Amino acid sequence: MLLWVFFLVILTLSSGSHSSPPSLPIRIPRYADAIFTNSYRKVLGQLSARKLLQDIMSRHQGERNREQGAKVRLGRQVDSLWASQKLMALENILASLLQKRRNSQG
């Protein structure tokens, strides 16, 4: 680090005697701005990618919930139909048992 400061001081002092590109102190803020801009763009890109991924996942989850809801409704309808068929079969059995009992008593 100390060597870097020494190098910077030497370049600054010698820049007056030679025609050189813009002095180093002007370049440093530009370099820092470039680093900040690049980092900021990366962060914005990551945020955009994260938001896109969240949107895709929420859509996928919504589709899955709709499919599961349809399966549940279909399952309930099948269960209801099955229960009504069981009830009808039970009523038929009871009716036939009652009829047999009436015939045996009468």
Commentary on this structure:
With 106 residues, the protein is mainly α. The protein has a domain at 49-105. The chain contains two helices and no strands. It is rod-shaped and about 130 Å long. The model has no long low-confidence stretch (mean pLDDT 77).
- Sequence of secondary-structure elements: HH
Count of discrete alpha- or pi-helical segments spanning 4 or more residues: 2
Structural class, by secondary structure, is: mainly alpha
State Rg.
Answer: 42 Å
Function: GRF is released by the hypothalamus and acts on the adenohypophyse to stimulate the secretion of growth hormone.
Keywords: Secreted, Signal
Subcellular location: Secreted
Pfam families: Hormone_2
Topology:
Elements: H1 2-14, H2 24-105
Concise summary:
Belongs to the glucagon family. The protein has helices at 2-14, 24-105.
Q: Which labels suit this protein?
A:
mainly alpha, Glucagon_GIP_secretin_VIP, secreted, peptide hormone receptor binding, growth hormone-releasing hormone activity, 106 residues, VIP/GHRH-like
